[in-house]
Amino acid sequence: MARVKPKRHGVITDMTAMCDVAFLLLTFFILTTQFKKPDVEQIKPPSSISEKLLPDASLMTINATPDGKFYFQPVDNARERSELLDKMGEKYGIAFDNNQKVAFQRVQAIGVPMNQLKSYLALPEDEQKNFKSPTGIPMDSVNRQLVDWVQQSLSVNPDYKLAIKGDVTTEYPKVKSLFEGLRDIKFLNFWLITSQEGKPNE
Amino acid sequence: MAEVQVQEKGAKGGKVRSKKQSTRVDMTPMVDLGFLLITFFMFTTTFSKPNVMDLGLPAKPDPNAPKPPPTEIDLSNSVTLLLGKNNRVFWHQQDQAGLNDQTLIETTLDREGIREIIKQAKTRAKKKELFTVIIKPTDDAVYKNFVDILDEMAITQSERYGVTDLKPYEKAIYDKKVGNSGAPAPATK
Q1: Is residue B26 in some structural domain?
Q2: Which secondary-structure segment (H or E) carries B136?
Q3: Nearest Cα to Cα of residue A12 among B25, B155, B84
Q4: Are strands B51-56 and A189-196 parallel, antiparallel or unpaired?
Q5: Exposure b/e, B28-60, CB count within 10 A at least 16 = b
């Protein structure tokens, strides 16, 4: 006597299609990701409720470290960078050779006064990354190199936007001097980089 | 495993056939790995973009331009906030004559403190459309205070606000307040 058994099927999912999609997406994300370059100094931006994301624009960034030093990060565009270096050199009477221009195109952020820029650019790339400037870019009422960097960048391309990244503990007078300098060159609209904070429920 | 092998029973005493090996490849681990990587790349792309807040500065007045006539400001239409050291914040609605130790009031940088003050001042204002918040960061303030207070402006929807320096008489009273109080002053509402 053979009992009639219901035929049992194996539970098989065909995962080929899913796998295809997964790897297609994976490829897409791998190709579009841009890894953040490491910062020279650790800066922790203050939190804010603003939900606006940093737009994709030709962006120059000013970093203000906790101890009030300024770093300037020019726009990522090799040709315009070398133009900027020419203009700054002209203004401060320093001539840069081709090697230094190439180094400048690759540099992440500048944190030295103009008179030390040459020797900074001459450093090997590894040392540049670890070089912590004792002074930063000077920014006070007599020596306003930071504002000059911004101004010369704008003369290369007036469409540049500026983002300021300050640390939680950066002293306000430092920031104020920067704002005042920017007002002097009539560059009035820019962004402050903040970190996300939950919107308070009213 | 996504594949559950079910052994076929029965056909006892049948012919012994050579078992056919299935050519199916188990793709589960591969898909797992794929999605793990996707998750990673998705998170890194969205979170590498920092948040920003807009800031527009007023243009510097042209030194050659004639000075605008002094405008009459009703004190109730504005509130002045002083950002002090150690994240302390003070506020007042006085002019030089009325400002003293009692009228410069300390509050806190949170919902119960400063936000309430701004809201109350706004409801008290005689001309609501002219209500202005004047932000005066002292030299002891840090960048965070400044961003926080701009945040409060966004939260309380105070569109008219200005950032400026302390007047000497405000500075004198602020110094006195900060210098005097070793213990934190009681929070006022």
Answers
A1: no
A2: strand B132-137
A3: B25
A4: antiparallel
A5: eeebeebbebbeebeeeeeeeebbbbebeeeee
Per the structure block, which two tokens stand in for A179? Answer: 């704002």
pTM for this structure? Answer: 0.69
Beta carbons of A8 and B50 less than 8 Å apart: no
List the domain range (segments joined by +) for residue B95: 75-180
Q: Is B22 on the interface with A (CB under 8 A)?
A: no
Q: Do B53 and A53 touch (CB under 8 A)?
A: no
Number of domains in chain B: 1
Burial per residue of A29-59, b for 16 or more beta-carbon CB atoms within 10 angstroms, e otherwise: beeeeeeeeeebbebebbbbbbeeebeeeeb
Distance (Å, whole) CA B143 – CA B91: 19
Structure tokens at A119: 């020797």
Q: What's the gap in Å between the CA of A12 and the closest CA on chain B?
A: 5
In angstroms, rounded to a whole number, what is the distance separating the alpha carbons of residues A51 and A198? 9
Residue B83 lies in a domain: yes
Task: Give the model confidence (pLDDT) of B100-119 as tens digits.
Answer: 777 777 877 777 788 888 88
Tokens at B44, concatenated? 């890194």
Q: Is residue B117 part of a domain?
A: yes
Let me know: does B134 contact B80? Beta carbons within 8 Å: yes
Residues 105-124 of chain B whose Cβ lies under 8 A from any Cβ of chain A: 111
Q: Does B13 reach chain A within 8 Å, measured CB to CB?
A: no
Tell me if B55 and A173 make a contact (CB, 8 A cut-off). no
For A83, other C-beta atoms within 10 Å of its C-beta total: 17
Write out the two tokens for B104.
């410069």
By C-alpha distance, the chain B residue nearest A23 is B34
Model confidence pLDDT, tens digit, residues B126-169: 777 778 888 888 888 888 888 888 888 888 887 788 888 888 88
CB B173 within 8 A of CB B100: yes
